[in-house]
Write a structure and sequence with these properties.
The chain is of the alpha+beta class and about 210 residues long. It has 2 domains: about 30-100; about 105-195, no CATH class. The chain has 3 helices and 6 strands; from the N terminus they run αβββαβββα. It has helices spanning about 1-25, 105-120, 190-195; strands spanning about 35-40, 60-65, 80, 130, 165, 180. It is globular, with a radius of gyration of 21 Å.
Length: about 210
């Protein structure tokens, strides 16, 4: 009888842990089968890097969950891949992504919308804002063993092509720094204002040298 009681206790513990995990990462019913899910703040893979495209998983990212378990069960990041057609991991073999990374909507419309928002809400003190292209080295690439892609100094997410950023003015073209912060309100990324509300950077956060005014 004691063995049966222990088995029942173990099953109850596992059921409780699964319920806690599901509660911390709630999904639509179709997203709890271990096939598809939407990334939430408490998703186990949030902020981790996709092993295929090299981009971090963000809140709202649709993903495919592998055989490691259902979303909300502590699934390992290797079992998760983006479903955004603008990212290489969502494209089929031999296919190209539909648009610049992170922007699965029509590229012309999204570019015009972003430009309109930036014109309506310019950064404080005229800080220059630059759009990233797929060729910019700050944009994350498919994962290379041991390599760490650049991340936003505020939100710690990787950069995707098409996003607007503020580059550190100490040496923006040099990989020795090249530190960047999202400033893309059209995409909901107001990292620059959150990090530097006064709109100025006096010390380079990488080289720790004074930045020229």
């Amino acid at each position: 009888m004691r063995v049966a009681d222990d088995d029942d206790d173990a099953l109850a513990d596992r059921a409780f842990e699964a319920g806690m995990a599901a509660g911390l990462d709630p999904q639509e019913e179709t997203g709890r089968t271990g096939e598809t899910a939407v990334t939430h703040v408490s998703s186990p893979w949030n902020h981790r890097l996709c092993t295929t495209c090299g981009q971090s998983f963000r809140r709202g990212d649709p993903v495919r969950v592998g055989d490691g378990g259902a979303a909300g069960s502590g699934v390992a990041p290797d079992d998760v891949a983006h479903l955004d057609p603008a990212l290489v991991c969502a494209a089929g073999p031999g296919e190209e992504p539909e648009g610049p990374g992170g922007h699965s909507t029509d590229s012309t419309a999204s570019t015009e919308f972003a430009a309109g928002v930036l014109a309506t809400w310019p950064p404080v003190d005229g800080v220059p804002v630059a759009p990233l292209t797929a060729d910019d080295w700050q944009v994350a690439r498919p994962a290379v063993h041991g390599a760490r892609p650049p991340r936003c100094l505020y939100c710690a997410h990787t950069f995707r092509a098409g996003e607007h950023v503020v580059l550190c003015p100490c040496s923006p073209a040099s990989p020795a720094c090249g530190a960047a912060v999202h400033r893309d309100p059209a995409a909901g990324l107001v990292c620059w204002e959150s990090w530097r509300p006064e709109g100025r950077l006096k010390i380079c956060p990488v080289k720790l040298v004074a930045v020229r005014e």
